[in-house]
Predict the structure.
Amino acid sequence: MSSNQTAVVSKTPLPESQIQPFALEITARERHKLVSEKIAAEHLDLSVRTLQAWRMRGGGPVYISISRKCVKHRIYDLDSWVSDRIKTSTSEQGR
Protein backbone atom coordinates (compact mmCIF):
# COMPACT_ATOMS: atom_id res chain seq x y z
CA MET A 1 0.00 0.00 0.00
CA SER A 2 1.42 3.38 -0.91
CA SER A 3 1.59 6.27 1.54
CA ASN A 4 -1.38 8.08 -0.07
CA GLN A 5 -3.73 5.07 0.21
CA THR A 6 -5.85 4.47 3.27
CA ALA A 7 -6.77 1.03 4.55
CA VAL A 8 -10.48 0.46 5.06
CA VAL A 9 -11.38 -1.58 8.13
CA SER A 10 -14.89 -2.88 8.57
CA LYS A 11 -16.42 -2.16 11.95
CA THR A 12 -19.15 -4.72 11.39
CA PRO A 13 -18.57 -7.75 13.63
CA LEU A 14 -18.46 -11.21 12.11
CA PRO A 15 -21.59 -13.32 12.54
CA GLU A 16 -21.30 -16.00 15.25
CA SER A 17 -21.34 -18.71 12.58
CA GLN A 18 -18.07 -17.37 11.15
CA ILE A 19 -16.21 -17.18 14.47
CA GLN A 20 -14.29 -20.37 15.17
CA PRO A 21 -12.30 -20.76 18.37
CA PHE A 22 -8.68 -21.81 17.81
CA ALA A 23 -9.18 -25.05 19.72
CA LEU A 24 -11.83 -26.19 17.22
CA GLU A 25 -9.37 -25.81 14.36
CA ILE A 26 -7.18 -28.57 15.81
CA THR A 27 -8.32 -32.05 14.82
CA ALA A 28 -8.75 -34.78 17.42
CA ARG A 29 -5.72 -36.58 15.98
CA GLU A 30 -3.56 -33.47 16.36
CA ARG A 31 -4.75 -32.96 19.96
CA HIS A 32 -3.44 -36.42 20.91
CA LYS A 33 -0.19 -36.12 18.97
CA LEU A 34 2.98 -36.10 21.06
CA VAL A 35 4.79 -32.76 20.96
CA SER A 36 8.19 -31.71 22.22
CA GLU A 37 8.82 -29.86 25.44
CA LYS A 38 9.57 -26.73 23.39
CA ILE A 39 6.25 -26.90 21.50
CA ALA A 40 4.40 -27.53 24.79
CA ALA A 41 6.05 -24.47 26.35
CA GLU A 42 5.14 -22.34 23.34
CA HIS A 43 1.55 -23.63 23.43
CA LEU A 44 1.27 -22.55 27.09
CA ASP A 45 3.25 -19.33 26.57
CA LEU A 46 5.76 -20.47 29.18
CA SER A 47 9.46 -21.21 29.16
CA VAL A 48 10.85 -24.72 28.81
CA ARG A 49 12.61 -24.18 32.15
CA THR A 50 9.26 -23.54 33.84
CA LEU A 51 7.89 -26.86 32.57
CA GLN A 52 11.07 -28.60 33.71
CA ALA A 53 10.82 -27.05 37.19
CA TRP A 54 7.18 -28.09 37.51
CA ARG A 55 8.09 -31.66 36.55
CA MET A 56 10.72 -31.73 39.29
CA ARG A 57 8.49 -30.43 42.08
CA GLY A 58 5.03 -31.32 40.69
CA GLY A 59 2.09 -29.14 39.82
CA GLY A 60 2.54 -28.82 36.08
CA PRO A 61 0.72 -30.53 33.22
CA VAL A 62 1.01 -34.29 32.84
CA TYR A 63 3.78 -35.49 30.54
CA ILE A 64 5.07 -38.62 28.89
CA SER A 65 8.58 -39.80 29.64
CA ILE A 66 9.87 -41.49 26.50
CA SER A 67 13.36 -41.91 27.92
CA ARG A 68 15.56 -40.28 30.54
CA LYS A 69 16.21 -37.30 28.28
CA CYS A 70 13.06 -37.27 26.14
CA VAL A 71 9.82 -35.77 27.46
CA LYS A 72 6.66 -35.33 25.38
CA HIS A 73 3.26 -33.76 25.94
CA ARG A 74 -0.13 -34.11 24.27
CA ILE A 75 -1.93 -30.89 23.29
CA TYR A 76 -5.08 -32.44 24.76
CA ASP A 77 -3.41 -32.76 28.18
CA LEU A 78 -2.03 -29.22 28.03
CA ASP A 79 -5.45 -27.78 27.18
CA SER A 80 -7.11 -29.85 29.92
CA TRP A 81 -4.56 -28.62 32.43
CA VAL A 82 -5.27 -25.02 31.44
CA SER A 83 -9.05 -25.57 31.59
CA ASP A 84 -8.72 -26.91 35.13
CA ARG A 85 -7.20 -23.59 36.18
CA ILE A 86 -9.95 -21.26 34.95
CA LYS A 87 -11.09 -19.00 37.77
CA THR A 88 -13.85 -16.42 38.11
CA SER A 89 -12.55 -14.80 41.27
CA THR A 90 -9.31 -14.38 43.20
CA SER A 91 -11.08 -15.83 46.23
CA GLU A 92 -11.34 -19.29 44.62
CA GLN A 93 -9.09 -22.03 46.01
CA GLY A 94 -5.71 -22.33 44.29
CA ARG A 95 -4.35 -25.58 42.91
